[in-house]
Design brief:
single chain; alpha/beta; 15% strand; Rossmann fold; globular
Length: 166
C-alpha cells in the first residue's frame, strides 16, 4: 500500500467479507471476486486514473481474477500468492494463463503456501511481461521484511512506468 501510494496512486485497502471487522460472510472466493470488481469500479469512478492492482495471499488469488481481464488495470501485483491449498482451500489460478498485464509476483523464501518451485513453475508458464521475486528469509507475511518488499515494488513500478511512457 505504501509503495503504491508513494508513486501518487490512490490506494483502497479493505478486508474481504467476513474478515476482521468487515461485515458479511466468507463466500469461498466467489463473492470476493465480485467485491474486488466493485472496488476497481469505485476507484475508477472516484479517480479516473489507470489502475494497478495489488493483493496479498487470498486477496491476490481472488483479486487477480477480477483485475486481469479488466482493461482499466494496467499492471498487477500478487504478494504471497497461495499456490498450495491451505485450511481446505485451494485456488484455481488457471485464469493467469490469459493475463496479458505486466505481472509482479513476490513471495517469501519461507512462505508455506507458496513454495519457490511451485511459484517458479506457475510464473514460467505465464505470458509476459512478468517478474518473480523471492525475498530471502521472509515468511508468508513478510515479517521483518516489509522494507525489502516495498523496495521491490517501487523498483518494478519505476520499470513499468518507464516502459509505458516510452
Amino acid at each position: 500500500m505504501k509503495a503504491l501510494h508513494s508513486f501518487g496512486f490512490p490506494v483502497l485497502r479493505f478486508n474481504f467479507r467476513g474478515t476482521g471487522l468487515s461485515q458479511g460472510e466468507h463466500d469461498d472466493g466467489i463473492g470476493e471476486v465480485d467485491d474486488a470488481r466493485a472496488a476497481l469500479d469505485w476507484l475508477d469512478r472516484e479517480f479516473h486514473l489507470p489502475l494497478v492492482f495489488a493483493g496479498f495471499s487470498f486477496g491476490a488469488a481472488v483479486g487477480l481474477q477480477a483485475a486481469c481481464p479488466d482493461p482499466r488495470v494496467k499492471a498487477v501485483i500478487g504478494l504471497g500468492l497461495p499456490v498450495l491449498p491451505a485450511e481446505g482451500h485451494g485456488y484455481d489460478l488457471s485464469f493467469l494463463q490469459t493475463c496479458a498485464r505486466p505481472k509482479l509476483f513476490i513471495s517469501g523464501a519461507r512462505d508455506q503456501f507458496g513454495p519457490r518451485v511451485e511459484l517458479e513453475r506457475l510464473v514460467n508458464s505465464l505470458p509476459g511481461p512478468k517478474k518473480f521475486v523471492l525475498i530471502e528469509g521472509a515468511d508468508h507475511f513478510f515479517e521483518g521484511r516489509l522494507r525489502e518488499l516495498r523496495e521491490v515494488i517501487e523498483s518494478w513500478l519505476r520499470e513499468i512506468i518507464a516502459t509505458s511512457s516510452s
